[in-house]
Amino acid sequence: MEDREPGPAGDEHTASVGVAALTGTLCAALALAVGEFADALSPRLESFVIAVGDVFVDLTPGPLVRTSIETLGMAQKAVLLGGITVGTLAVGALTGILAPSHRRLSLGVIAALTLFGGWATSRSPLTSPAWSWAVVAIAACAAAGALHFAPGPVRRRAPPPDDPDDPRIRYADRRGFLEWAGGISVASVALVGVGRTLLADDTVQVARRRIVLPAPATTTTAGTTTTVTTTTTGPESTTTPPTTTEAGFPTAGDLSPYLTPNPDFYRIDTAL
Question: What percent of the chain has pLDDT over 90?
Fold first, then answer.
């Protein structure tokens, strides 16, 4: 038996898998960009990432939510939305890898994501179900179309032709893939950028900037004991009142105070 040494064929296969994963990632990014653009067009539409984040918030058990708050603090929302984005791009990469040899399975993954995205965006009472499903369908068609017409290993390979110089047969090259990837990237960035800068309603943002919350005040109250002397007809008596908090409520052992101290108070906007 002769040992097989890794050669150009193995390197070509590794490169093909990497290109396929990048292709699927860019297609998923295009679908997310369509959702971000639609979110900026109307308040009756919602971003795919925000909608899926709301699903996670509603279905996550309370103890797990409290643990995430204690661990992440104010970064909780950013981690959740970032994780959803990365997870979607990862599924897109897997779809791109499956596309060359499992075309139907890759289309099934896209269909499953479409159904889940449509349900997530249409479940809110503040959104329009019909328009939400329409936007999801457009995003799915954009991703599937980009994946279908992508050059490189994502296209199903045909058997070697008898005439390799036949002009009707087109081969994907590095330049063609870079042009396709650049076009998808520019389209995705443009959709997100236009939605965020030109079509977004800045009224809410301006109102938020006008509201200035006061800095939390930190007060230090020294523990004092007040002695009250009461004169009656009988002998003189001395009464010591119980220790009270700053708000005037009596303390009871190791129980937490009625008013939470500012350093221990957790304030965060629960809306994604």
Answer: 34
Mean pLDDT over each residue of the chain, to the nearest integer: 77
Residues 6 or more apart whose CB falls under 8 angstroms from that of 54 comprise: 120, 124, 272
Structure tokens at 242: 């119980």
Which pLDDT belongs to residue 64?
87
> Is 213 exposed, middle or buried, given 0-12, 13-18 or 19+ CB atoms closer than 10 A?
exposed
Give the number of other CB atoms < 10 A from CB of residue 250.
10
pTM: 0.69
**39 Cβ contact partners less than 8 Å away, ≥ 6 residues apart:** 45, 46, 47, 50, 195
- Residue 228 β-bridge partners: 239
CB neighbour list of residue 24: distance below 8 Å, 6 or more residues apart: 92, 93, 94, 95, 96, 97, 99, 147, 154
Q: Give yes or no for residue 204 having a pLDDT over 80.
A: no
Instruction: Give the C-alpha separation, 99 to 159, whole Å.
Output: 17
